[in-house]
Amino acid sequence: MTHLDNAPETKAAGADLTLAYEDLRYTLESYRAANEERLAGIESRQGADPLTEEKLVRMDAALDDTMRRIDRLTLERARPALGHEGHARDPLVAEHKAAFAAYVRSGEAGGLKRLEAKALSAGSGPDGGYLAPSTVEGEILRRLAAVSPIRSLATVRTISSGTYKKAFSTTGPASGWVAEAAARPQTGSPTLAELSFPAMELYAMPAATQTLLDDAIVNIDQWIAEEVESVFAEQEGAAFVNGDGIDKPKGFLAYPTVAEASWSWGNIGVLNTGVAGAFPASNPSDTLVDLVYALKAGYRQNAAFVMNRKTQAAIRKFKDSTGSYLWQPPASAGAPATLLGFPLVEAEDMPNIANNAVSIAFGDFRRGYLVVDRAGVRILRDPYSAKPYVLFYTTKRVGGGVQDFAAIKGLKFAV
Fold this sequence. Notes:
This protein is α+β, with helices and mostly antiparallel strands. The protein has 2 domains: 3-78; 86-170 and 191-308 and 347-415, phage-related protein like fold. It has 13 helices and 16 strands. An 8-stranded mixed beta sheet has the order 7-8-16-13-9-12-11-10. Strands 1, 2, 5, 6, 14 and 15 form a 6-stranded mixed beta sheet that branches. Helix 1 (3-45) packs antiparallel against helix 2, helix 4 packs antiparallel against helix 5 (110-118) and helix 6 crosses helix 9.
């Protein structure tokens, strides 16, 4: 499949994205008009009209559907084609790509064995498969960055070993002011914490018919990347939010939470809404403002809100003191929605609003959360376990965890 093959699809995705964005604008205007009607009814009759409430629920669902369509079309338009010319000019990459295609299509592993012997790496023994070409690995990682919400916000490091370790100063670097010719006083010793991020194995097992594999026009690299994209992204998304760190990355909500007033290193600071399982009845948006300013100014510059769609639906009705809505739609096609002027990222693995649930996170996730990818994606061809289908056991190693506990705050729906 060439760049030219993808051109009509890209233009169609762009046109559909523009239409979806226009639908979002129109639906949002209708939604806000209905909400104003609801508020007017509450003020005049001390109660909301059930028909208006039902209408708002339907329009909430329509807004969510339109946002999903925009996200999907944005991803389709952003997907790059494989087979870049720079890789094609590299004879080793081209040889690896040809050997890998022969292995996937027919099970011929001789070419891959010779390449891995040259690289002094193991074959299909304990590693369980063969390394995919760099084009396949790069495509998988690009797709994951687009569809895995926390990965798109976090710092991502590629490692060659099983664990990434780093030292972090919990008190900041020792420093001070001094005159040009004055003696340099000894500074206090910094407090260091060693952080360890092991890479855990993530796998997917797409299946294909031999007819598909025999079709020379099918781009095998593209097919594998598409098949594992959603599976890897779904597993990653859940682990980066709630993972317990046992055979998976540790999510930022899996760390101990403490009241922001008594925050200490190693914990995630949270603010309570003051109401069990809900926002306060009066001035509910004040809790969001308090959450923003619980974060130090240096972190707020690149901060973002993280929540799921149900929580987002609840805050769409919030206004500031001037009557302006706090939630704003994307400023352009492909841009994120904003809340209080900060980007809003949807992560469906965030908890729904409930008693004692930390349903909203706010912070600089690039400084606060680290994702580690071990280099290499391995694929093992299995034509026997699910005849007549051919299975491709695809594995990559990924880890993650909080690297700066001061960079992420949460909003807890509790008294």
